[in-house]
């Protein structure tokens, strides 16, 4: 073989070896790059999944908390306790004293005065407020016994601080047949000792004390019932009226 031929053959072989080495290096580099891209993609997916899970957990917790708050707010309230009397009016009406005069408007128009009942026995029942449970029962009881009071020679009148319009609504709703007097200025209420200090929730205020006064035919106070309990009260007053 000539020197020229050996040189050419040597160059060709060298090129082939270099090409193989380059291909091998390229393949190795490609695999490495692919592996790197795969790893990065996996990390990104894991991070996204973690964020999504955290968001779902927060939303669920917020929803549960909202439901709990709504449930707590819808609990029924306890019924308010009735007001209690702590002190009577400064005016003290005693049995045997002359009944204080009055002249006040009533339901249906007109007015009612003490002189309208001269020579008759008179029952005055003072109630806190028209169309409330206790006051309604009391007014119905006196209405139910009206004829028996008349037979005993007594008339019955109801008094509160409600307006005439409120008294008329009260009368119509419960078919009451007794005169209902309106005393918004508390003049008669104070004169008969039915206005006093009351308390509720630790707060004191002035209000009507449920009271009944029986006046005899001479215009004198025969009996006084203070802090009245409604059940059976009308019957007790009727018995007292009969005994006069």
Automatic annotation (TrEMBL):
Record GO cellular component, one term: cytoplasm
KW Oxidoreductase (keyword) present: yes
PROSITE patterns hit by this protein: THIOREDOXIN_2
Compositional bias of kind Basic residues: 44-56
Any GO molecular function: thioredoxin peroxidase activity
Top EC group: oxidoreductase
Keywords: Antioxidant, Disulfide bond, Oxidoreductase, Peroxidase, Redox-active center
One Pfam family here: AhpC-TSA
Disordered as annotated region, ranges: 1-84
Catalytic reaction(s) noted: a hydroperoxide + [thioredoxin]-dithiol = an alcohol + [thioredoxin]-disulfide + H2O
Documented EC number(s): 1.11.1.24
Known function: Thiol-specific peroxidase that catalyzes the reduction of hydrogen peroxide and organic hydroperoxides to water and alcohols, respectively. Plays a role in cell protection against oxidative stress by detoxifying peroxides and as sensor of hydrogen peroxide-mediated signaling events.
Family: Belongs to the peroxiredoxin family. BCP/PrxQ subfamily.
Protein's name in the database: thioredoxin-dependent peroxiredoxin
